């Protein structure tokens, strides 16, 4: 990716005095002062939903998102890191297929597409906007730009002959992109951003992200 050369710039430009831009007095569309508690609101909503006879599909979404949140420790960055790990495992399953297993490849690409869509939706609807609001625009724009290439790889693989000799090399390239993208999020951008926020602000991001994840479950 041509844009990977920007990593050094990003690191330099986003270090330093960010806390002054994100004081606990900040109020915004994220309403950070409004306490969110990760999975807890989802579990409460689940109980409420059951009580009023909410549709089974919504209950399933609540359960799925709450389960993922709890499994990851309930914090937004941990949930995303767990999803990165699960996504890379899906790539490895695809890379283990043979050229004559075209139906299996088609099915695995479908599950990969679903997982990447949900993950990207959570980041694009909550985490990246929160980064921009905290003046981490360079990082947010770079990461969202790479999400565009994620869609491009999915498009290529879905429209490619699954028995083609090009299939696995394309999957490997795609996996490399995802791995590097996830590493940047997990090792550079997210820890720095999380540490600059208060506990309440982080809880709010977790809560908002879980709501968006549920929409895609
Ligand atoms: Fe991302
Ligand atoms: Fe991510």
From TrEMBL:
Residue ranges with Low complexity bias: 1-18
Taxonomic source organism: Sphingomonas kaistensis
Domain of life, per lineage: Bacteria
UniProt-recorded name of the protein: Hemerythrin superfamily protein
Positions of region (Disordered): 1-32
Domain Hemerythrin-like: 79-192
A Pfam family hit: Hemerythrin
Listed InterPro entries: Hemerythrin-like
